[in-house]
Amino acid sequence: MARKVVVTCALTGSFDTPSKNPAVPVTPEEIVNSALDAAKAGAAVVHIHVRDPKTTRPSMELALYREVVERIRERNEDVVLNLTTGAGGRFAPHPDDPRMPGEGTTLATPAARVAHVEALKPEICTLDIATMNFGETVFMNTPAHLRAMADRIKAAGVKPELEVFDLGHIELAKRLIAEGHVEEPPLFQLCLGIPYGAPATPETMAQMRDRLPKNAVWSAFGIARAEFPMAVVAAELGGHVRVGLEDNLYLSRGELAPSNAALVEKVVTILSLLDVSIATPAEARAIFGLRG
Questions:
Q1: Residue 226 and residue 273: Cα distance in Å, rounded?
Q2: The three-state (H, E, C) secondary structure of 163-203, written as one string
Q3: How far is the CA of 73 from the CAs of 46, 67, 141, in angstroms?
Q4: Would you state the pLDDT for residue 292?
């Protein structure tokens, strides 16, 4: 039997993308409908951020997460939910005193960043093993904060998806695993093409894969025009794939994606042409080692 590949759909993200593509979901209703349509198109996992419906900006409001999670579960008990914990990690130094936060800083405590995970207990949540330049801000995740977040995630019975953006991040993730903060087998997401992180190339993905723990399960994605090429490379290298409007706004060159479902349909078609079998949510749970 052919190896099963899990498709994750990253629905909305946190950047100013709604102004660039009106298909990016913003309100809880839009996020829910986009998740359900992506699942129908073949996504076994949906990766969820929430946004302030009035401003479209990223939000950490528990009430918004609760509404999205409960409404998805009311209509689809099968799809795997993956909630972000990336919000609350941005630092921009004040221009007059770099020791102080400036405009764009969102730093929050580890407890605040995982409060929605502890309350809602999704099967997966992300844990960004990265301190790096991210646009004009710094995405800051210190080892101490990561340990604290990982311990809370573990206590909640949630599987962390370890997001890594470069080789050094993998080494830090391995330290967290060795120290017992992350249970084995670990689940990794290789994030490629983000400016100032690892480039979206087959060589980079292969090198990152080779640095993972031997028992790791992994997915990968490339952003923008690299989304579909990197999905193919990930599947060929033994990994799983992620697509979605968080990572890429276009269905093809010059054509805005009309929905998350359209991006899922395209990657499913591409992988099917390569004789790759797409995992169901039940199969994804077994592959990712999720709780029963």
A1: 19
A2: EECCHHHHHHHHHHHHCCCCCCCCEEEEEECCCCCCCCCHH
A3: 12, 10, 31
A4: 59
Side-chain-side CA neighbours of 219 within 13 Å: the count stands at 27
User: How many structural domains does the chain have?
Assistant: 1
* Furthest-apart CA atoms within the chain: distance in Å: 62
List, for residues 86-105, the tens digit of each pLDDT value: 999 999 999 999 999 999 99
Sign of CA dihedral 148, 160, 134, 191: positive
- The vertex-38 CA angle with 236 and 232, nearest 5°, equals 15
pTM of the model: 0.96
Containing domain of residue 177, as a range? 4-288
Indicate if the pLDDT at residue 2 is higher than 80.
no
Read off the tokens for 224. 């923008």
Among all chains, which residue has been given the structure tokens 């190339």? Answer: 201
- φ/ψ of 216, rounded to 5, equals -70, 145
pLDDT in tens, 212-242: 999 999 999 999 999 999 999 999 999 999 9
Contact between residue 7 and residue 247 where contact means Cβ atoms under 8 Å apart: no
Sheet hosting strand 132-134, strand order edge to edge: 90-91, 137-139, 132-134
**pLDDT for 3:** 85
Summarised one tens digit per residue, pLDDT across range 248-285 is: 999 999 999 999 999 999 999 999 999 999 999 999 99
We report the CATH number of the domain holding residue 198 as: 3.20.20.70
Helix (H, G, I), strand (E, B) or coil at 235: helix
Distance CA(37)–CA(27), nearest Å, equals 15
Gap between the Cα atoms of 95 and 93, Å rounded: 6
